[in-house]
């Protein structure tokens, strides 16, 4: 057998293919993709065609597989049907017919059209920012559970800090309460005690599933950074928790001095049923089981009104057709008239969000952005700081929460009547890739709570001044610009 290879011919073929790759990419990459992202991908393919096409095949699709999107559509239809049924429930008319200020109506309609869930009245909301006390509060509510406990976290670990919650789940399971647990596979497995946690859940008789597992042998594969970033706990459909805090040790098992501050909303009332609907959607996606034994309609009939706060839950992620959270956040920022405070650890806005924030500041709104001095992600940290100069020139006040605490809370307060608490960062990943959940509270008292928490953040923060920021080194600016460019590769 003649194994001689004409390397000249091979070189010519590879060269031709190298020229063809960017040409073919022109027909594929820009489809349903933002111009900035498409331009970044095309630039990579023109400069490094083989590397570019390989990376694009691995992480180029910002959507879940088709079968997962079909599941999401199925659950969206179910949620919309439930919402229509609830409006007809005897005695539930006040939940949906309470007069709503005209200013809030557009956001309620937008969220309902994006996520399928209406605004519901009759809730009480408590904002919690003590890391360990949050776990204690969740455990206490689980100990009062009578029917079910639903737990869903991006990062979930049985450790010294979280043991109180796991013990409560075990007690609930032992007394006949159905406990279900979801954890993101990659979000949880990178931390210590991952295998121990799974064994513990199994031995406790608790049913659990991994979210978005990477199992090619079972036909389950999507780009690795498409993750479920939600944090949800629901007890009996009457009490729910959501926010930024994972079920994990406060320092996330880090080897440096960084530890995390978080914000969680405890909501009692009909809005807890909406959080449960999000959990049910994810449970169906991972287990194939549609939890309809205790329907949302029946839960709402059994859920007492707990307060006067009007709330709405908005799920978002790559299973939806639109960037739900980005659209809502942008609309809310455009509506600010007096004061806007954005608290988020990861701020890498797209053009629409950046325009909304700078426009608010330029029209006279008191705009503050609370970030962190400490950094746990090099690329995100430098990318977000590349926007500081433009923000400050527009009049946005930027504060760094002092290290070693990394301020991980994700919240927003608009004027004195709208508070937003959830799992979503303000970056491309949370807008385009991650599955997130947001609680919007249209209530003055909730904003008062959030303003008090913001004031505590500001006491532990330092102001970033434009004149000082402009003195940073050329190398720092270069790192920021490079990281900003890579953030567009979605």
Explain this structure to me?
The chain is of the alpha/beta class and 490 residues long. It has 3 domains: 8-59, no CATH class; 66-98 and 120-310, Endonuclease, Chain A; 324-486, Endonuclease, Chain A (2-Layer Sandwich), CATH 3.30.870.10. Helix content is 46%, strand content 19%. It has helices at residues 7-28, 35-47, 49-59, 66-86, 93-97, 105-115, 131-143, 163-174, 185-189, 194-203, 271-287, 296-302, 324-335, 351-362, 378-385, 388-394, 428-433, 444-459, 466-469, 474-486, and strands at residues 120-128, 148-153, 178-184, 207-211, 231-235, 239-243, 259-261, 264-268, 309-316, 339-343, 366-372, 397-401, 405-407, 411-414, 418-422, 436-442, 461-464. Strands 4-3-2-5-6-8-1-9-16-15-14-10-11-12-17 form a 15-stranded mixed sheet, with helices on both faces. It has a two-stranded parallel ribbon with strand order 7-13. The longest helix has 22 residues, at 7-28. The protein is globular and about 75 Å long. It starts with 6 loop residues before the first helix and ends with a helix. The model is unreliable at 89-97 (pLDDT under 50).
């Amino acid at each position: 057998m003649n194994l001689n290879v004409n390397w000249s011919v091979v070189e010519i073929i590879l060269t031709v293919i190298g020229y063809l790759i960017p040409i073919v990419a022109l027909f594929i990459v820009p489809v349903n993709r933002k111009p900035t992202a498409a331009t970044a991908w095309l630039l990579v393919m023109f400069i490094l065609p083989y590397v570019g096409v390989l990376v694009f095949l691995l992480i180029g699709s910002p959507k879940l597989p088709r079968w997962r999107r079909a599941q999401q559509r199925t659950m969206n239809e179910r949620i919309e049907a439930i919402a229509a049924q609830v409006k007809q429930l005897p005695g539930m008319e006040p939940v949906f017919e309470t007069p709503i200020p005209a200013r809030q109506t557009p956001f309620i309609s937008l969220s309902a059209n994006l996520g399928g869930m209406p605004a519901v009245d009759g809730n009480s909301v408590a904002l919690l920012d003590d890391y360990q006390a949050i776990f204690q509060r969740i455990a206490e509510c689980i100990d009062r559970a009578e029917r079910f406990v639903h737990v869903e976290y991006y990062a979930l670990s049985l450790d010294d800090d979280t043991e109180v919650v796991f013990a409560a789940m075990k007690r609930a399971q032992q007394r006949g309460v159905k406990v279900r647990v979801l954890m993101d596979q990659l979000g949880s497995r990178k931390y210590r005690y991952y295998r121990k946690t799974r064994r513990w859940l199994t031995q406790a008789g608790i049913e659990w599933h991994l979210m978005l597992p990477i199992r090619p042998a079972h036909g389950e594969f999507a780009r690795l950074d498409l993750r479920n970033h939600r944090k949800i706990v629901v007890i009996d459909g009457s009490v729910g928790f959501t926010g930024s805090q994972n079920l994990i040790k406060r320092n996330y098992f880090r080897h440096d001095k960084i530890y995390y501050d978080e914000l969680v909303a405890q909501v009692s009332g009909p809005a807890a049923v909406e959080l449960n609907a999000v959990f049910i959607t994810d449970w169906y996606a991972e287990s194939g089981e549609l939890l309809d034994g205790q329907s949302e309609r029946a839960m709402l009939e059994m859920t007492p009104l707990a307060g006067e706060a009007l709330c709405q839950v908005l799920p978002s992620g790559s299973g939806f057709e639109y960037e739900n959270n980005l659209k809502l956040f942008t609309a809310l920022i455009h509506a600010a008239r007096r004061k806007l405070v954005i608290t988020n650890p990861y701020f890498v806005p797209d053009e629409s969000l950046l325009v909304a924030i700078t426009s608010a500041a330029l029209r006279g709104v008191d705009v503050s952005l609370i970030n962190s001095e400490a950094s746990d992600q090099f690329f995100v940290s430098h990318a977000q700081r590349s926007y500081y100069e433009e923000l400050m020139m527009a009049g946005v006040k930027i504060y760094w929460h002092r290290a070693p605490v990394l301020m991980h809370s994700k919240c927003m307060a608009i004027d004195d009547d709208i508070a937003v608490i959830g799992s979503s960062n303000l970056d491309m990943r949370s807008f385009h890739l991650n599955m997130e959940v947001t609680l919007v509270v249209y209530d003055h008292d909730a904003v008062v709570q959030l303003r008090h928490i913001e004031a505590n953040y500001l006491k532990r923060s330092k102001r970033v001044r434009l004149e000082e920021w402009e003195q940073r080194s050329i190398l720092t600016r270069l790192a920021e610009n490079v990281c900003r460019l890579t953030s567009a590769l979605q």
